[in-house]
Specification:
This protein has 5 helices and no strands. By secondary structure, it is mainly alpha-helical.
Length: about 130
């Protein structure tokens, strides 16, 4: 399995694991609106990541290569929809903004985790 495939699988799986952990810890140890911010932020970014993956996979897999205009249009549609959802959540005081920002960091933490795991794999592979 190639490095890129391992990283993608690790990021995809750890997105959901980190979201679940954030929801569990947030639900048990933080106020309700902060926990909702963690959950909604994590859901927004995780769903966006999966939709981007599907869009790019469909656009770059032969024989049905999509135009870059379609990919960009879908990207901006997701970006706009996410912005509107975030605006609505904050403006109506449904979530704590700090919890939302931390929830939106789920994919970044997943990518960092996958990179560290791959780096560990490469270091120990070369050591043997």
């Amino acid at each position: 399995m190639k490095i890129q495939e391992r990283i993608l699988i690790c990021v995809t799986r750890s997105n959901w694991v980190l979201l679940g952990l954030a929801a569990l810890v947030g639900g048990l140890f933080t106020p309700f609106d902060f926990a909702l911010g963690l959950i909604f932020g994590g859901l927004i970014v995780t769903v966006n990541f999966h939709l981007l993956y599907r869009t790019l996979k469909g656009a770059l897999t032969p024989p049905h290569l999509a135009s870059h205009h379609a990919v960009i249009a879908k990207y901006y549609l997701r970006f706009t929809l996410s912005g509107l959802i975030i605006f609505w959540l904050i403006s109506k005081n449904h979530v704590d903004p700090l919890g939302l920002v931390l929830g939106l960091s789920v994919v970044v933490l997943s990518i960092l985790f996958a990179t560290l795991m791959e780096l560990k794999h490469l270091i120990f592979k070369e050591a043997m």
